[in-house]
Sequence to fold (321 residues):
Amino acid sequence: MIAEAAGVVVHGCRAYATPHLGRLRVRAAFECTVSGRLASWGDASRALVPLVERLLGVGRLAVAELRSEGLARGFYVVNKAWLRGAGVEVEVRLVTLGDGRPLVMAGALREGLEPPPGWSRELGSHIEGPLAPAKPLARPRALQTAVPSPAVYIAEGEAPEHPGSLRVVAPEGVVRVEVADLLERAEWLELEFHCVTGWSLGRRRWLAVRLRDLVKLPGTCWLLAVSSSGYSASIPCSVADEVYLALGYEGSRLARERGGPVRLLAPPLFGWKHVKWLAELRVTAGYVDGYWEALGYHERGLVDMEERFKVRNPELETVGI
Fold:
């Protein structure tokens, strides 16, 4: 044990480099193995400040933001903190189940701080292979609520410009695909969308091209999808037959705030994987954290396996994916 506060026990933390997230000001990411049980959401938020101060070995940090948010009908709680002080800026998230059991504590070192000497460090873009509970934490899709229209989220703060084409980096080489060429090949398809926060959009008409029609993928691989802003998400090739490049929605070209001119759609996966303003697809042999994965979201994100958040709690039985 290296830290404890308000019922959360931190057993160890590991930091790792995230060079592909540099445009989003993430110098390094970290994950901590956690256990215990919290008495309330408020306890979780209050626990974050002393935990981070102890873990980083820095003096008192100013709290720029501290809040708890229940997701998926309150089954999950994301406790968030922005902490600043002495040239340090840290974003940390402690994800718990609604009954107070923690799943993972993860975050980003954004300014002025290298991983502390007591932490193990690893190069690359992740710290270990994907893990999942031996069985889903909840009944699949039971926590979703149908909505008539999708909400709009922009992790970058505002919609970025798009170059009008995208790069596909595959084992056989690099291919540049123009949006105009995609439009000529696209067809209207009925596809679903499921947001990790707990809402679902039923079958809607999307103008899209199937990824398999554009690039040949090896049998076992991952796709790192990157937006023109630097936002990214990791997609398992096991669902590649159901991954699309979308250019239109419900009879119109895709609006910019919804990811136009081209975005990723992967109906088997939760919505943070559906990268907007898609500018690059990299085929990789191993798993790589994207933006939300670096902040504690699940490596794979299958809707039908209830894979919303990483599990880094030794008290919850896990198996390798």
User: Anything to note?
Assistant: The two ends are 27 Å apart (CA to CA). The chain has three helices and 21 strands.
